[in-house]
Specification:
Helix content is about 25%, strand content about 25%. It has nine helices and 14 strands. It has a seven-stranded mixed beta sheet. The chain has a seven-stranded mixed beta sheet with strand order 10-9-8-11-12-14-13, with helices on both faces. Helix 4 crosses helix 5. It is globular, with a radius of gyration of 21 Å. InterPro entries: SAM-dependent_MTases_sf.
């Protein structure tokens, strides 16, 4: 008998349980708290469950469940046992509370205090830096209001390297919406090769958080939305004179001639049912030669979780030859992010990813 744990956004535990029940019917639900779900599996395992690719779309972290720890001393004992196989990365993080969009200061402080205690006692067993690298064994200490849960995972390609799957994003004061964090988290998670000088189209852009994030990276954006855009976003000039141009009309009314023919990226964050949002994204993509798409799909109906495989098939068709992956990142609420991207060539890898201040590759042009 072995256990598997998954860290999720508080409030979507039922999504995780239903998705795992469909994909792995032999697993049995074992233990759950806000932001944490565990299962029993009959097959004994000497390794953690990190190799379970995409355990559930809503999981930020998953692996082998060790169990509930009654105290920091219990965690120290577990860590020393696990470290017999080699040094560990230490990830200590609060799991959050149901109904709360952000962690409370006292939750973060409790996690920081426990981490300080553990690092003081485990200097020989754990690495100094928390950010995981591929192949690292990570000790996850999941901090609740009055409980501790311990798990272990092996960091793999495509997983989130930071504790609790919380990607550190510095959101500037001028950002008008949560979409800034959403697109930045997706770019980091997917290692998206956005470069200064690129051109993007965004559907459902208002008030402009995602467009602003891209402009700060040196990417010019054509933002499609009948609603008003934030004036600060429209006035902003990024590296290489990157800017946001607003097409103030519904996406269905946009013509081919209004779109930049050299767009490299497509973003969509429409408040529509996922199949409808994907149809609009496909229509826009068909007029351009985009190499990738970052899509936010609203999952207001929990039954939509069962349709994710079908939605990913539709998403793949948006960019011919691309793969599609889905995840729920910390900035997402009742929604998921979908990354649709073609495999990078060696030349593209050498070109590198966007960095603020990089010279523009080309200016946006429209037909």
């Amino acid at each position: 008998m072995s256990f598997v744990f998954a860290v999720v956004r508080p409030g979507v535990e039922a999504w995780a349980k239903s998705e795992v029940a469909r994909a792995r019917p032999a697993w049995r639900f074992a233990y759950g708290r806000a932001g944490l779900v565990t299962w029993k599996r009959d097959a004994a395992s000497t390794e953690d469950a990190s190799s379970e690719d995409a355990l559930t779309v809503v999981a930020r972290v998953w692996g082998r469940g060790v169990g509930v720890a009654k105290s920091v001393d219990d965690v120290v004992r577990i860590a020393r046992e696990e470290a017999r196989a080699g040094r560990l990365r230490l990830h200590v993080f609060a799991r959050g509370k149901k109904g709360a969009e952000e962690l409370a200061p006292e939750e973060e402080e409790r996690a920081r205090g426990i981490e300080r205690e553990l690092r003081a006692q485990l200097s020989d067993e754990i690495e100094r830096d928390a950010r995981a690298e591929r192949g690292d064994r990570v000790l996850d200490v999941i901090v609740g209001e009055d409980d501790l849960y311990v798990g272990v995972h092996v960091h793999r390609a495509g997983a989130i390297a930071w504790p609790g799957g919380r990607i550190p994003i510095d959101v500037p004061a001028g950002s008008p919406s949560r979409a800034y964090r959403k697109v930045e988290e997706m770019i980091v998670w997917g290692d998206v090769p956005v470069r200064a000088g690129d051109v993007a189209i965004e559907v459902g852009a208002a008030p402009g958080g995602a467009a602003y994030a891209l402009a700060r990276r040196g990417v010019s954006v054509v933002a499609i939305d009948p609603a008003e855009m934030d004036p600060h976003v429209l006035a902003y000039r990024g590296p290489g004179d990157a800017r946001v141009t607003h097409l103030a009309k519904p996406v269905g009314a946009v013509t081919r001639d209004e779109l930049p023919h050299d767009a490299r990226w497509l973003l969509s964050d429409l408040n529509l049912a996922p199949p409808v949002a994907l149809r609009y994204a496909a229509r826009i993509a068909s007029t351009t030669r985009v190499e990738g798409a970052i899509l936010t799909l609203k999952m207001n109906d929990a039954a939509m979780i069962a349709s994710i495989p079908a939605l990913l098939e539709k998403a793949r068709a948006i960019v011919p030859g691309a793969d599609a992956r889905a995840i729920q990142l910390p900035a997402h609420r009742q929604e998921i992010g979908v990354l649709v991207i073609r495999p990078r060539s060696a030349a593209a890898d050498r070109a590198g990813r966007a960095r603020p201040g990089a010279a523009p590759r080309r200016a946006p042009r429209t037909r």
